Amino acid sequence: MPYDDSSPPTRRARPLSVAAALAAVCLTAAGCGGGPEADGAGAAPPGPGADAASSTAPTPAGKQPEPSGTASPSDSGAGSAKPLPKGPLTGRTVVIDPGHNPRNRDHTREINEKVDIGTGRKECDTTGTSTDDGYAEARFTLDVSHRLRTLLEAEGARVRLTHDADRPFGPCIDERARIGNEAKADAVVSVHADGSAVGNRGFHVILPAGVKGGGADTSKIVKSSADLGARIAGHFVRTTGSAPSNYIGGNTGLDTRNDLGGLNLSTVPKVFVECGNMRDPKDAALLTSASWRQKAAQGLADGITSYLKG
Q1: End-to-end CA distance of the chain
Q2: Which of 9, 12, 56, 103 has the most C-beta neighbours closer than 10 Å?
């Protein structure tokens, strides 16, 4: 399948309240809490040390991951150098964490080195997953992150990326958390796509559990992160038309985990967003569409804006 990386015109959707955000999820799904609990049901197990719900799968030979053509130059951990307009997010800092790195697959020894995540040790990073015909998760996450940065900067936010495919591998999961912490970010969103079984469809937002041990203490961010995640979920379903996950989160689009270093080590509000399942052909058709990726970025931006204007 050819991949269209062009950027269609953006649009704005009106912010929703937290209650409306959750209502939007419930209306699209088979009822919040309705039906059997689907946490993990039928999902393919993640790769060793995966720091998100994505499973580890190398990109097939001949398909070289590459940064999106929508990128604007920036240093790792920095936003674009252009002056920011005044807007509703002026004075706010958002850190976007594009999951994985296109070059991770060439540095398997380095990314397999374990780092401290506060409650234990885990691999530095993983390669991420891909669609069956080779569209890499790392390429997807960079593209959506670039689009999201453009939308947030248009609202006046100072935006930083944890990386922009400008380093050999990583950053490791502990460094990803540290970048958000040191930026004193008002919100951090880690962009991913899942690598589950065929038939498992939809998006989900991963929230930090209450974790305290070693260098990890999420007690001050659990509530705010849950608010951020609920608003993103509501806007994401509204803007993209995608339903909440049918295999994780009990049809709510929300999942709480205590095993992700990027969340455990965060001291600022942070969530992971699995935008869809790259291993399901129907979800893959969306994830490889530039127009859908723009909608995904818009849904994320609207959710973040709703949270920050709260």
Answers
A1: 41
A2: 56
